[in-house]
Amino acid sequence: MSVKEDIPAIFLEKISPRGLEAIQKTKDFVHNYCLPADHIYHEQLSTDPKLRWSSIPPVMEKLKKKAKELGLWNMFLSKHYKEGPQYTNLEYGLMARYLGRSYTAPEATNTAAPDTGNMELLAKYGNPYHKSKYLQPLLDGEIRSAFLMTEKGTSSSNALNISCSAIKNSRGNYVVNGLKWFASGAGDPRCSVWLVMCKTDDNSKNPYRNHTVLVLDAKRALASGKAKLVRPLHVIGYDDAPHGHCEIEFNDYEVPSDEMANVVLAGVGRGFELIQSRLGPGRIHHCMRAIGVGEFALLRVAHRANNRMIFGKPMKERESFLNKFAQSRIDIQRCLLLVLNAAHKIDISDAKSAQKEIAMAKIETPRTISEILDWGIQVFGAEGVSQDTELARMYAHNRTLRIADGPDEAHLAQLARNEAKRFDEIEKFFASYEGNRAKVNKL
């Protein structure tokens, strides 16, 4: 089926012929290669604890080779970056919708988090050294990366609370101390670079200049013994090996002298600015993949309904089932419009200007898709919570999106505060409304 039928009419005319072709290729690649490969990937993943975190299922490299042949590579790098294929955020968002249906598809096309956000930061702020040593191998899919921000025992949704310190010693080298966790991607044996949010100052007059992003050679840091990968954290029971969401401890890790010239990304004190830049488009990518998850869940549910008898009657003929299915379609379409609107707003202005639209999409999409996944699990019964369907794993991953990149409550509170600023305008509106009514009465 042509992707034109999947794209809301209001956005169809805004997509270039080249973008439309790439969206169709993405859909076909996911359906023909990635979805069948998902089962193979998990079969190839070792259950031996030693090998589970040191080897990559071979099917992944085969998928990456095919994706490159099709030109489906690094699509997330928008028109603002010369290093990528320069699709719009709207066009890539529609590709991510299909990528989200498959576990393997994001990595197969080199569009997996956290590498996408890290590559954007390195492309936008990195110096020639960063781009040569880390960005190009990341763009080529040769290495992986991790972003170390979240801290144990710290309300990390407010970046000003980040306390992992980087203080210069008598030799002029940064010494890093602190405990990071949920560092996605840090367990991967190919992970070669960490972008670490650190507190480098304690300026109370301008707390937004207290933090800096350091670019650390991950393998060198671990080899020192002063940076330790403590453990992979499970997400609702899933360890996501070999990718992982890891706890990492810095205990007087001194950045080597030969790295000091290039250890700071963009500049000292610009950490808060950088993470805001990183998270804007990333939230849209997460939401578009979540929509793909919801759509695939409905495919699974429909297949179940076609083949399930309930008290002598096919499930697909049950009115309660059909009503819920139809409502789920409406709910997904609502989220799709919110996300595409945010993506388009970024394209025509920037992420800062689209703050309200991004917040709305980020709040509404993960919780809506979680509700749909929960219903899908219920439709399958005991099978739904087992490894025999994708639904349980999808639910675990999607549930984290209500916490990752800022919890629902933080986005909702910010959105509410911004909307409240307009209340005075509402008073003016109703004042003019009363005045205009008087004018109409005199006509």
How would you characterize this protein structure?
The chain is of the alpha+beta class and 443 residues long. Helix content is 51%, strand content 13%. Strand 2 (165-168) and strand 3 (174-184) form a beta hairpin. Helix 12 crosses helix 14 (408-420). The model has no long low-confidence stretch (mean pLDDT 94). It comes from [Candida] subhashii. GO terms for molecular function: acyl-CoA dehydrogenase activity; flavin adenine dinucleotide binding. This is Acyl-CoA dehydrogenase. Residues 269-418 form the Acyl-CoA dehydrogenase/oxidase C-terminal domain.
Secondary structural class? alpha+beta
| Percent helix range | 40-55%
Rg of Cα set: 24 Å
Order of helix and strand elements from N to C terminus? HHHHHHHHEEEEEHEEHEEHHHHH
Number of contiguous helices: 15
Strand order of the largest sheet: 2-3-7-6
- β-sheet strand percentage: 5-15%
Low-confidence stretches: none
Indicate the mean pLDDT. 94
Separation of the first and last Cα atoms = 57 Å
Overall 3D shape: globular
Number of strands: 9
Main sheet specs: 4 strands, antiparallel
GO biological process, one term: fatty acid beta-oxidation using acyl-CoA dehydrogenase
Protein name: Acyl-CoA dehydrogenase
Subunit structure: Homodimer.
GO molecular function, one term: acyl-CoA dehydrogenase activity
